[in-house]
Amino acid sequence: ANLNKRALSPHEFTPEQKKARLQNSMRILKDEPVPEGYLRFRFNEDCQYPHCGYREHQTHFHCQRPDCGYSFCDKTRFVQHTARHERLDTLMGGDFQQYRANVACGRPECAYTSNLGNTQNKASHFHCLKCDFVCTDTNKVVAHRRQHQKLDSIQAAGFEKFTPSQQCKMGNCQHSGKQTHYHCLSCHYAVLGLAQMSAHKYRHLEG
């Protein structure tokens, strides 16, 4: 029962997947149960996953998450694969969307779209839901999320960030084009760090 709870997908199923789930539920009557979120396909059944290496010649299972579709034959993979999704969902924190190598992300401009179905390419890629950032490294996912969290804090404090490569166009700003700094959106006062930002914000609140 616990495995079923862990395997629940946070994504909505498509009508085709719901139909497949119903068909699979009927097969459970004569087969041993398949955990929620997975489907079994017999050796002579078409799983309709275009890049599946087991299609129509070997009994196998598919993860039903729209961003995954992972296929495997070994029943011990259920727990392992479910744990993988739990780990990645925690890393992504609702800010990223993962796509396995055999799943189209639906972004024509994505550099990883051209590798779809390539047997040499087995890496998932991740799209940031807040900007155009994309990567294949989970460490970069975590680092990028931190950047957005910092930017959110800066915006909440009433400031705008400028990097050394940006001209802030604020009159007589000694930091423009030289170092990372932040300008108050109310009075254009410049600070170099979050601590100064908080102190300046209180001045406006007191005023």
Automatic annotation (TrEMBL):
GO biological process: positive regulation of transcription by RNA polymerase II; regulation of neuron differentiation
UniProt keyword Metal-binding, yes or no: yes
SMART domains per record: ZnF_C2H2
Keywords for the protein's UniProt record, in alphabetical order: Metal-binding, Zinc, Zinc-finger
Domain C2H2-type residues, every copy: 61-90
Positions of transmembrane segments: none
Single GO MF descriptor: zinc ion binding
Keyword Zinc: yes
GO cellular component: nucleus
UniProt protein name: C2H2-type domain-containing protein
Originating species: Photinus pyralis
